[in-house]
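Before anything else, study the sequence and fold tokens given here and see whether the fold suits the sequence. Record follows:
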Amino acid sequence: MTTANRRRGRKDRLKQVTDSETSAPVWPGLIGGRLKPLTPAEVLLIEEAAFSLLETLGLSQAIPSMIQKVTSAGGSMTDDDRLLFPRELVQWAIDAAQRGFTLCGQNPDQDLKIEEARVYMSTGGAAPGVFDLETHEYRDSSLQDLYDAARIVDRMENIHHFSRSVVARDIEDNALMDLNTAYACLAGTSKHVSISISEPQNVANIAQLCYEIAGGEAAFRARPFLTVMVCHVVPPMRFAEEACEVLECAIEAGFPVQLISAGQAGATSPATIAGSLVQAVAETLAGLVFARLIDSEVKAIFAPKPLVADLRTGSMSGGGGEQAILMAGAAQMGRHWNLPTSSIAGITDAKRLDAQYGAEKSLAVTMAAHAGSNIVTQAAGMMSSLLGVSHAAYVSDNDLLGNILRTIRGIEATPENIAADVIEQVCRGEGHYLGEQHTFSRMKSDYFYPEIGDRRAPRAWQEDGAHRVGDVAREKAREILSSQYPDHLPDALDRALRQKFDIRLTRAQIGRPE
């Protein structure tokens, strides 16, 4: 690292203090990026391998509009119908990509500034199941579950972004499911929302929904509050044709997009961590080229999200050290190019809130965040290797993420924080710091206090019922769901939306009179 880079890094870290309210121990957008699992030489090796694969192997199954755009920009097609991306074109896509943009909330207080190594925590997953609050058993997820997840997250200060976490399995029609997924998320929280869209013809209706909520198309394009997540590839090195069409439609409609590659090591990507990372990076960069050829000003998020398999069984394994280091490496590659970056972390294999859950989630989320991923998805609520979501876990994860964010904030070694004068004063006086004004002044600004985690002595905990953290989190989730009905969508607007769109959540379900 050069002297200039070291100085810039120190300046950025110290700037964090001025970015916060003095009473807040953590806040959205803390600056990560200090964890670098790859050496500089390894970063360049991965870059060269990805560029070479795109230039010499390319990807198959490109859609006609992509072929036209890429070949017009210098790419070519092989005899076996693979689209090749010259490194000059890939470098162009990286060099001129949008940086420093805002992912807007419906409420401007929820805006997320995506720049440099600022870190935000997010949900995610598209799980087919929910760990029921009452029965403590898994069941199929519903549209109500999705809305409930959004409104719990709306209350969680350390979950900054809501990515669609469960599938509305009670709606069979794809177009209706996509539309109602968008509505349930946008009605449940004023934070920035991300969803996927199953078919290109469904984009227009969701765009119209967003335009109506924003007050017009121009207003939405100026402040887009919904990102479309697109898995534009079917690894290894093949485009997903329908998803590429969704990507094109979404960009043209004014949505920010998240470009996702999610191969599974040992199955759809190489078994080695480095090989899996190279393939994911190459596939994601191919999506970035296409996105920028559609609209050079697109707000695109680089999101290589390679996954890991347990090679004994072939099933996905999201809780191991391999997944954690892979996500940190993916985030580091994003930071290498200074691209807006998203990583997948927190997809524990645990089936409930237990020791395995906490250990696996803490490991993966901490590493991705410290490596500087701008949006860490699946960081809250997700369990059972992406097959299930727990509403109670959103509440307990809010504590976990607060503690992780505190580690990202770091030590902040300044003359004031080192407090040499206070040390001298205490040593010449009382001999302890408990009564010092310096101690009182830092209680709230420097220390994160959990809401669900219990720090009492064993006797006090036992006398109060000896409740496990999962029990406390479930009770808090029940309290929120019985009373928290967001009202950022004005009542007249909600009624107007129901006149234009087939909204399946009833007015009663969102806490409003019919």
